[in-house]
Amino acid sequence: MDNLIPALPDGPVARLAVEHARSRESEPVANHSIRTYVFATLLAEHEGLESGADFDRDLPFHACVLHDLGTSPSAPGMQRFEVEGADMAAEFLTGHGYGTPEVDAVWEAIALHTTPGIAERKGALAYLTRRGVGADFGVGVDYVSDAQGEAVHQRYPRLNMATALVDDIVRHAARSPQTTAPRNTPADILMRERGQLGTDLTAMELQAHASRWGA
Predict the structure, then answer these.
(1) Looking at the whole model, is its pTM more than 0.85?
(2) I need a surface site. Which of 45, 48, 94, 136 has the fewest CB within 10 A?
(3) Strands (E), 41-99
(4) Which domains does the chain carry?
């Protein structure tokens, strides 16, 4: 079934990016990041967006695979997880020879991936990254066949991703709430829901449970 879904890039920096994410994130979150890339690539194919013409060839891979570094314990815990994740991805890419324009584009895509209505208007890279993230929550996935959905989840299991991701976002936000979770940001909303609902599921988890893919 692997031929139904895009293969991950196999260059040395791409392999290091996957190792980088997996060494810092929980397995459910790392799998989510990789699925984000697969869904973003399927969307680009569906919409006729072309590597080299509409976006730099390997930047969607790095933006997707590294987009949740800010939820990891290695993040500083002083700013929003989206911003810290963007900073950490930028540091990784700079250290592996990427130039300022490429690094800035990935930074922007990651920093905006939870921002509806803006990411979609900041170019193909930010658009694909945000839509890839949404697709892993079952949002706007009509372009994904049942066979493709089964293939990606066999290869990169969900492992109750939604709860793992909420746990990591809330843990990060709790380190310095005034700066990591400004009012009405995703982290602030999740912190308040967890505090009010206790062991019940947050709206983000409920959305995932009710989606095409499940949690």
Answers:
(1) yes
(2) 48
(3) none
(4) 2-158 (1.10.3210.10)
